[in-house]
Write a structure and sequence with these properties.
single chain; alpha/beta; nine-stranded mixed sheet; three-stranded mixed sheet; 7 helices; 27% strand
């Protein structure tokens, strides 16, 4: 069974994580590393996918920045979403042949991980169209998925609301759905805060299993050593924001 390197990087600025993904992607494309999944959280940021439109930010960009939330355009699929502390984000940088099958695989893995956490009514909704990609609890959205494929290797990935503030979703049109209600693991289960580390481990294992990979935990230093020689732009300081 092939390995999936899983590396937890703490809380990273979104642009720093983008640059890091690009370095790992190039390394994966030339088989310098096996499949990799970065696990992390982000400081508050709205990210816009390839199908985003200006109306998804109804207050105007300056208003959101005044609230301390960055806005970043990306090359992933999908529309606008929010990332913030307490949300578990996974960026699998893996070889795939069928990108839609890969997205469905991520959905299945996250449904499994959430069910194991005791979240009831979890499901995917592929029949409802691309704006409904992700994972839902009945009609409430708990996880978002958006990916990019370049020369057979993915970047971007998934984000699950565990114990993050949901208010920033209410200030925008998340996922292009004006009436969507966002939810989180602690909201659905009634548990107190402090669930992020446990769910991060459970989700990583579920994704590795769904991809048919053997999970191997690696440190930020080990990953940096493996991709450091790849000529993919200025080096990204892996350890600067690494949390043990």
């Amino acid at each position: 069974m092939q390995e999936l390197w899983v590396c937890y990087l703490g809380t990273l600025d979104y642009r720093q994580a983008l640059a890091l993904q690009e370095r790992v992607r190039v390394a994966r494309q030339v088989n310098q590393v096996p499949d990799v999944m970065l696990l992390l959280e982000h400081w508050p940021v709205y990210t816009r996918g390839r199908r985003s439109v200006p109306e998804e930010l109804p207050m105007g960009e300056d208003w959101y920045r005044a609230q301390g939330i960055e806005i970043v355009d990306t090359d992933r699929g999908g529309r606008l979403t929010y990332h913030g502390p307490g949300q578990v984000v996974g960026y699998p940088i893996v070889r795939v042949e069928d990108v839609m099958a890969y997205v469905r695989t991520l959905e299945i893995a996250l449904v499994d991980a959430l069910e194991q956490e005791g979240v009831a009514g979890v499901r995917a909704r592929p029949q409802d169209g691309p704006d409904y990609t992700g994972v839902w609890v009945d009609d409430r959205k708990i996880a978002s998925i958006g990916v990019h494929l370049s020369r057979g290797v993915t970047t971007h990935g998934w984000a699950v609301n565990v114990e993050n503030d949901l208010q920033p979703f209410g200030w925008v049109v998340p996922c292009g759905l004006s009436d969507v209600q966002m939810t989180s693991l602690i909201k659905e289960t009634g548990r107190p805060a402090g669930q992020t580390p446990c769910f991060r481990k459970r989700a990583a294992y579920a994704v590795a299993q769904a991809l048919g990979r053997r999970q191997r935990l690696v440190s930020a230093a080990r990953l940096e050593a493996a991709v450091g020689a790849v000529p993919a732009g200025p080096p990204v300081p892996f350890l600067a924001t690494h949390l043990s």
